């Protein structure tokens, strides 16, 4: 039996979710692709945590020269199986290191993936290394949720996700409020036994991301509530933030 990856390992999410990631993920990549294609223009783009290529492949089909960084070999194999997947250069490594040769007109992180870096130092490293590979007029785009304190009630949470005639799936969370971190397990009980899918995140408020960006030599250029460009406000539950070099 292969040893399970540990929390904090860059490969953990992909190794656990690669086999059915596309089938289980309902997020529509089209609005993100439209937004990112406009920013990339005729320049090179780099997706951190490229995964199975749900955004990278349609973006490349728009004529953008897309490259990727991914922590999981299994995710990259899924990408390679798709039409056009072998044409996207991918480095398998830790996205916080941004192991790619710039300059890029666009670097982007979507679907809350920045929070998969569970140490604040590694999140800050990610910003610094993105700044290193950006064009002088380049853009770094981060999509993430705005944390909801009510979700962290009493430091733990249990949700019922599915109940069928022969299975049940729950998700359990344990929060470290001081560290802004949670560990979770999605647990399915069925006739074949108990199936575990671990996950961990270190969540941040937008203002904290802005501070990381400033320390990396980046500035907030624009912030929207979503990919459609709706204004960001105090009631927004998510954000799409565009950072550019401060010089």
How would you sum up this structure, described in words?
It is a single chain. Helices cover 24% and strands 34% of the residues. The protein has 247 residues and is of the alpha/beta class. A seven-stranded mixed beta sheet has the order 3-2-1-4-5-11-10, with helices on both faces. Strands 6-7-8-9 form a four-stranded antiparallel beta sheet. The chain is globular and about 55 Å long. The mean pLDDT is 94.
Number of DSSP E strands: 11
Q: Report the uncertain regions.
A: none
Shape: globular
Q: Summarize the biggest pleated sheet.
A: 7 strands, mixed
Backbone CA Rg: 18 Å
Name the strands of the widest sheet in spatial order. 3-2-1-4-5-11-10
Structural class: alpha/beta
Strand percent estimate: 25-35%
- State the share of residues found in helices, binned by percent: 10-25%
Q: What's the number of helices?
A: 7
Distance between the termini: 51 Å
Please, what is the average pLDDT?
A: 94
Which labels suit this protein?
single chain; 247 residues; 7-stranded mixed beta sheet; 7 helices; globular
Q: Quick summary of this structure?
A:
The chain is built from 7 helices and 11 strands.
Fold blueprint:
Elements: H1 12-17, H2 21-24, H3 30-40, E1 44-48, H4 56-61, E2 65-70, H5 73-80, E3 90-92, E4 104-109, H6 120-133, E5 134-145, E6 156-163, E7 167-176, E8 181-190, E9 193-202, H7 206-215, E10 218-224, E11 238-245
Parallel strand pairs: 1-2, 1-4, 2-3, 4-5
Antiparallel strand pairs: 5-11, 6-7, 7-8, 8-9, 10-11
């Amino acid at each position: 039996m292969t040893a399970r990856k540990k929390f904090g390992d860059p490969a953990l999410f992909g190794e656990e979710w690669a086999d059915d990631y596309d089938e289980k993920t309902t997020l529509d990549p089209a609005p993100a692709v439209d937004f990112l294609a406009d920013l990339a223009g005729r320049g090179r783009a780099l997706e951190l945590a490229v995964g199975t290529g749900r955004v990278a492949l349609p973006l490349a089909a728009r004529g953008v020269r897309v490259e990727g960084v991914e922590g999981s070999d299994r995710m990259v194999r899924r990408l390679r199986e798709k039409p056009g997947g072998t044409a996207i250069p991918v480095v398998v490594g830790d996205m916080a290191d941004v192991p790619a040769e710039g300059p890029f007109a666009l670097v982007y992180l979507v679907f809350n993936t920045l929070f998969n870096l569970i140490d604040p130092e590694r999140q800050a490293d990610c910003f610094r290394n993105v700044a290193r590979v950006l064009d002088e007029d380049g853009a770094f785009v981060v999509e993430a949720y705005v944390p909801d304190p009510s979700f962290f009630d009493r430091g733990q949470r249990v949700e019922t996700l599915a109940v069928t005639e022969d299975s049940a799936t729950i998700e359990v969370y344990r929060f470290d409020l001081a560290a802004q971190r949670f560990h979770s397990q999605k647990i399915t009980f069925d006739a074949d036994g108990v199936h575990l899918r671990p996950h961990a995140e270190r969540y941040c408020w937008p203002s904290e991301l802005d501070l990381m960006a400033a320390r990396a030599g980046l500035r907030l250029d624009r912030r929207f509530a979503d990919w459609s460009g709706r204004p960001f406000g105090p009631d927004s539950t998510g954000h799409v933030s565009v950072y550019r070099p401060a010089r």
